[in-house]
Every structure is written in structure tokens, then in C-alpha cells.
Specification:
alpha+beta; single chain; 3 helices; HIT family, subunit A; globular; binds guanosine-5'-monophosphate; 5-stranded antiparallel β-sheet; 119 residues; 20% strand
């Protein structure tokens, strides 16, 4: 389902603790939690707390340091929860399967099947 951009995203509601999630990492600017429908043995979503950026392209243009922090966080999660190897997926746009328009990275690791993607 695609969300209305005017309503708080499901991820903003997780950040506000309005709905539960299994949070694995949190700083003042970034939160990471388990995907509710995992596509790999390790499937963590890494999300900036600001809801200002809908896509990774907007984030890269608007706050490249925050994008770098997301990627650094992804690397740490893969090192902690797998062997350090990981796939990083940013579904970008409805046509690519993006359903939550609050930018997020999928960190996929652990015995990935050849060719598997987040969707
Ligand atoms: P997208 O399709 O936008 O790239 O990714 C959205 C992801 O958010 C999906 O993989 C979906 O499983 C996950 N997701 C959707 N709703 C929730 C939720 O309420 N909690 C958690 N933990 N993940 C969610």
C-alpha cells in the first residue's frame, strides 16, 4: 500500500514509539529496526529520523552526511549480525516497489539467494 505524503509515515510512528518494532540501533539522527516481513536471514531497515526526505535521491541532494551515516550504520549492522557482507537496497519510486515514502535502506545479509532483492 502507498501512503499519503501528508500523513506521518509508518516509520515516523515507529520512531515516536506509537507502534512497536524490534529496534537494533538508534542515535539522535538514525534508527534501525527489523523489517516486519524479512526477505533474508538479516533484514534490517536503516532510517533517518527526519521525515524530510522521501527517497535516497532527495537525501543525497539534501543531506549527504546523513546518507553517509545510514551507509556506515548498515556496515556496522552487517558486521554485528552477519559476516560483514551485505546488500543495500533503496527502493526508489512506486514503480520500483517503494511503499514507504520516508527514505530507508534495506540491509540484507546472511545466505542471500542469488538474484534476491527486497521485493
Ligand atoms: P519499501 O517497499 O518502501 O522499500 O520498504 C518498506 C518496508 O517496510 C517493507 O520491507 C515492509 O516489510 C516494511 N514495513 C512496512 N510496515 C512495517 C512495520 O509496521 N514495521 C516494520 N518493522 N516494517 C514494516
Amino acid at each position: 500500500m502507498t501512503e499519503s505524503p501528508r500523513e506521518p509515515s509508518i516509520f515516523s510512528r515507529i520512531i515516536a514509539r506509537e507502534i512497536p518494532a524490534t529496534i537494533v540501533h538508534e542515535t539522535d539522527t538514525v534508527i534501525a529496526f527489523e523489517d516486519v516481513a524479512p526477505q533474508a536471514p538479516v533484514h534490517i531497515l536503516v532510517v533517518p529520523k527526519t521525515a524530510r526526505y522521501a527517497t535516497v535521491v532527495e537525501l543525497a541532494a539534501g543531506d549527504p552526511a546523513l546518507l553517509a551515516e545510514l551507509i556506515d550504520t548498515a556496515g556496522r549492522i552487517a558486521a554485528d549480525r552477519a559476516d560483514g557482507s551485505f546488500r543495500l537496497v533503496f527502493n526508489t519510486g512506486e514503480g520500483a516497489g517503494q511503499t514507504v515514502f520516508h527514505v530507508h535502506a534495506h540491509v540484507l545479509a546472511g545466505s542471500l539467494e542469488e538474484g534476491s532483492l527486497a521485493h
